[in-house]
Design goal:
Elements: E1 4-9, H1 17-31, E2 36-40, E3 48-51, E4 68-70, H2 71-80, E5 84-89, H3 93-108, E6 115-119, E7 128-130, E8 135-138, H4 144-149, E9 152-157, H5 160-173
């Protein structure tokens, strides 16, 4: 059995598959925290990770109300479990709003030391979310357009050798 899945999505096909994968990845992080989570996204927005309007994600964080839970809140909860967050983006105006939100939220929670923000050069094109257990990568930015609208190819892999190789590669981004 393969531990890798390739998702081809568009606005009309498999549009929920990527959001479900992101929900699964971040739920796993809240239940079994990684040492480090890497997010490489040339463009990033405060996208919805959990649709908890019916309260179905309350067991992950009882403080979350019955509403959509966005990535900033999820990342704060992940960091509260001791996980270091490494976020790499382009130095683009679009990303400044997200950076301001995540820095403010992490500071308010007393977790600012868990956040490592890198404004990579304008050539950053690699996209991915990497935990100790899974790599989600492909063509998708972490924006609403990337998750819900654009045609994208996304790979989800739990294969240890792929996750380890990605970790070596992603760790290099913080060194330049």
């Amino acid at each position: 059995m393969s531990e890798t899945r390739k998702i081809f999505k568009s606005a009309v096909t498999s549009q929920h598959a990527v959001r479900e994968v992101l929900s699964m990845v971040f739920a796993q992080e809240l239940l079994a925290p990684s040492r480090t989570v890497f997010i490489l996204a040339p463009w990033i927005s405060n996208i919805v990770i959990f649709d908890s309007r019916l309260g179905q994600y309350a067991t992950l964080n009882p403080e979350w109300p019955k509403r959509e839970i966005r990535i900033v809140e999820v990342l704060v909860a992940v960091a509260a479990n001791g996980t270091a967050l490494h976020i790499h983006t382009r130095p683009d105006e679009h990303n400044k709003t997200f950076k301001r939100r995540i820095v403010e939220a992490m500071t308010d929670a007393g977790l600012q030391d868990q956040l490592h923000w890198y404004d990579q050069n304008a050539r950053l094109h690699t996209k991915g979310v990497l935990t100790d257990w899974v790599l989600v990568d492909g063509s998708m930015n972490l924006t609403e357009s990337g998750v819900a609208i654009n045609d994208e190819a996304v790979t989800v892999s739990f294969e240890p050798n792929i996750v380890a190789a990605a970790r070596l590669h992603f760790e290099l981004y913080g060194q330049h």
